[in-house]
TrEMBL record:
UniProt binding sites for ATP: G11, L12, P13, S14, A15, G16, K17, T18
PANTHER family in the cross-refs: SULFATE ADENYLYLTRANSFERASE
UniProt family annotation: Belongs to the APS kinase family.
Gene: cysC
Function: Catalyzes the synthesis of activated sulfate.
EC top class, as a word: transferase
Pathway note: Sulfur metabolism; hydrogen sulfide biosynthesis; sulfite from sulfate: step 2/3
Originating organism: Streptomyces incarnatus
Reactions listed under catalytic activity: adenosine 5'-phosphosulfate + ATP = 3'-phosphoadenylyl sulfate + ADP + H(+)
Catalytic activity, EC: 2.7.1.25
GO molecular function per UniProt: kinase activity
The protein, known as: Adenylyl-sulfate kinase
Amino acid sequence: MTTGATVWLTGLPSAGKTTIAYELAGRLRAEGHRVEVLDGDEIREFISAGLGFSREDRHTNVQRIGFVAELLARNGVKALVPVIAPYTDSRDAVRKRHAENGTPYLEIHVATPVEVCSVRDVKGLYAKQAAGELSGLTGVDDPYEEPETPDLRIESQHQTVQESAASVHALLSERGLA
Ligand SMILES: Nc1ncnc2c1ncn2[C@@H]1O[C@H](COP(=O)(O)OS(=O)(=O)O)[C@@H](OP(=O)(O)O)[C@H]1O
Ligand SMILES: Nc1ncnc2c1ncn2[C@@H]1O[C@H](COP(=O)(O)OP(=O)(O)O)[C@@H](O)[C@H]1O
């Protein structure tokens, strides 16, 4: 069985987390790895149905996703997780759970600046916030605690999607995981 790992892509809305995760998933599958993408939106429809965006709910959401990712990774799957995870303590708890089980865990900060994210505005959330139709948007009027020592930091505003995915892939190879 190949080695599993959790690859958590943290960053602001529209930073590029989901796009990089699916591009990387394609590359890894082509090499024969088993891969699952735990997409934040999908998770919120099912295992986190009913949770909102308060600090407490975001923490609960991230712990649930971390639990599932670790189960998958422990069983040989590359679990790719494009989820904001804005709080350091939530991310640290997930890292700790992986360490306790001896399961590889990589934290990737998709560090696209808010000025770029708000222009991309893939889901129209920044526009809604600006129009006063939504509040508590991460990076605008809700906190995002930047990772201080991520395994990799991606400046997606200076790269193509392919380059960003390749940099995560290279890190996995360096660590003997791909
Ligand atoms: N207030 C607010 N703040 C941030 N994000 C919001 C909000 N409301 C809805 N959304 C959409 O929900 C997605 C974030 O869910 P996550 O599960 O990734 O976030 S968290 O880790 O629980 O904070 C996030 O997806 P991405 O754009 O892919 O990051 C948003 O589309
Ligand atoms: N290097 C890059 N990596 C990822 N996305 C990029 C990059 N350059 C431009 N983009 C674009 O930015 C947008 C990111 O959206 P998305 O992946 O949904 O963000 P998130 O999941 O972080 O909310 C997409 O339209 C994508 O094509």
